Task: structure prediction
Amino acid sequence: MSSASSATPTSDAAIRAGIDRSLRHPVMFFLTSGAAWLAVSILLAITASIKVHCPTFLDGCGFVDFGRVFPAHINTLIYGWGFQSGFGVLIWLMARMSRQECRSAGTILAAGHVWNLGVLLGTLGILCGEGSGMPWMEFPRFAWPVLLLSYIAIVVWSFIQFRVRAGERTFVAQWYLLGAMMWFPWLSITANTLLFCVPGHPVMAAGINAWFKSGLVFLFFVPSALGAAYYLAPKLTGRPIPSHTLARLGFWSLAVVAPWAGMQKLAGAPLPVFLPYVGAAATALLAVPLLIAALNLLRTIFSSEEKLPKCAPMSFTLAGLVSMLVLAATAVLFNLPGSSLWKVQFSLSGYGFDMLAVYGVFGFMMFAAVYFMVPRLTNCEWRYPRLINMHFFFSVYGIGAIVVGAMIGGYVHGSAAEAWLQPWEYVVDTLRPFAAVSTFAWCVILFANVFFFLHLALMWLRPDRLLAACKAKTEDRVAQSQQTEDPQSTTP
Amino acid sequence: MDPTRDNPIIRFNTFWWALWAFFAFAIVLAAIMIFNRAAPTNLEDAVAVARYQTQQTVAEAQAKALPAADIEAAIPEVAAKLAASKPVAVERPDQVVPESPTSKALIAEPALGPTTEPAPVPVPAPAPAPATEGTPAETDAPAPVNS
Result:
């Protein structure tokens, strides 16, 4: 990626250092609290998954019913980890590419705390039985204005940085990041107004909810992931993006097609019949922008004549791109009306698809960005490379097992549900082995992510520096007290 | 970098433009909802008119068949009868809980006193089957022997 700035390398390095300094605490706050929420979410996922194959587990506690734990897991994953890691990466990338220091770090940090409070209260609301019952929107009503206002207070400064950026040209990564920043308020305001403020027909509410969920994946998570990937791939390989035309085609096809997707979830429901079919067609068509972006980025990475750098950002970027190719294939395979759609519509496959998008594509790209950004923000290299390797392999293994298990299991599950002569117990029995695999895989991911969180917290808080400062202070005090006790000792 | 591009006025304007852009969606949505309040005229609504009429007819017929005033008038009489009647314990051996003291007492009772079992009722002989032509109906009885 070429620099848009006409500054000399030395002054450009000084600008970058200034940007990193100005954003250190907001970005590290978002990344660390996001990692903490991720650990909480995985813990809830393990509980929910165990309850599928062992229903008597914790059956005496009403607040950890499957109907509460599962939505709590999904919502903490999305709003606790997904959005917060997205904020951290988004505001840092936009500042870096615009070559603008952040002048509102305090406001962003305060808004970040409000966001966390909203997520915490929303999660407690779900566990106390006050959830709305709409997938991915289960937080009680009071949480949505809080989240929307804090979102605006966090990202509005990135618009200003983009507007007053150095140089005229824009980067591909900036298109995607701007798109993600703009599209989320559209989704949030529209869905929340139509569902909570002026509710209409309940069937249409289910349709709006399905549209919101799909929009969140393809209009916030996927563009954020692509923004990070379009920044990291050229940075890590030192090669420019091979085709800007393809990149432009990928961006605009995503922007045009993605808002139509989502309603295929309600195929067969009493809705205008074209809506589910348009949703299925749009989701299948989304394979085009995903394939374009993935192939453009893979060409960037593999066009380098030098050996690829073996580092965590590169590994996670490649894993994210492979997940994107799988997501593109799945978007087509699972949305064929008349064949697969009926079987996977209400099955475990939906969960596999969501995890592939949120964790496989978005999560891996965010991990890549985190491993790239944090040494620059803290001015310190990662301390335990083994932990990073472990995080990578366990995450890839875990999410691979969950996605493959959920997708195959979902197809089996859906086929069993269609066999209506069988008792429903038979359908439940088909799910058990896949749920057991999912439990084990989440345990593996939890193990890796607890260490990821601790590693991140260590990088931010730098206990060694704090200890050194404390030690220096103590030594100063000891020296001063010795001087006051024995003032003659310093005299020759 | 263009030095005139980054100044407080541009930053201030951009801030408000960004806020406007965020809430423009809400404004457009509100406009659509305000100007799109016509009553729905689809097939479902046309059929619903007839269904509501039927529901009203049924409700009126029910109200005529059982007027509320008659019910109110009957209440004192029925209530007095109910209050005067005394509840009587129902003794049905088939509803006794197995292994309970009552059950054991009932089992022990025949051994102590004379039998209370009713005499067996003679079973009437089965009527001869009507002679039918064609294939005989399948039964568990053995096939007739030709002599």
Remarks:
- Residues 113-119, 129-147 of chain B have pLDDT under 50 and may be disordered.
- Residues 64 and 79 of chain B are 24 Å apart (CA to CA).
- Residues 8-34 of chain B form the longest helix (27 residues).
- The interface with chain A takes residues 1, 5-6, 10-11, 14-15, 17-19, 21-23, 25-26, 29, 33 of chain B (CB under 8 Å).
